[in-house]
Amino acid sequence: IWSPGISSSFQAESSRQDEQRLQNVRVYRLDDAFRLHTYIEAEEGQYEKKEWVFRRGKSHAFKAGDLTSVQPFEEARVRLPESFDDFEIFKEDPDTMSFGHLWTLTRKLMSEGYDAREYLVALHTRLSFPSLSIPLSLLGFALAHMGGGRKKTLGGTLFLAVLASFFAWTLFALTIILGRHGLLPAEISAWLIHLPLFSAGLV
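and the corresponding structure tokens:
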């Protein structure tokens, strides 16, 4: 994730909008001559009360483009013109990533201990969404043969199929939202819809 700001540029592995927090963040601050003035690297940066709070990192000071000092810190508070909202608009949408890029980024974030929930949900959704055609087909077959030998109208069967599909996609969208907000595990949120569909189709 990259965001060119007014006087600073941010780079981060991922972000949490609900907590206004960036993970594995880098900040590049320039002077009036557009030379590097300060470089901050931290495990996380959080926007609190109109200032940035960086935790567990280092601050590199430069003068005329030359490095003059490096100061490690547990917590550093810095006032910058850029807010979290200014940064968030440049966030890369996991839904627009290729599967390979999404897979690589998710594994990297998880291996380094960062919150990869949103990317993990998107990754499982890429796998679960195409496979929905299987339980939906079973459900359609069950609806077409529902009632044994009794005669059914085509309109009634189509109505039930449309109603079942609407229920399936609504529930699928709901579980994905719950997963992205941490109310369901990522794996369950993407695959939960298969359980009622398979159950209904096999009954």
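(Above: one complete record from the training split.) The longest helix spans residues 154-180.
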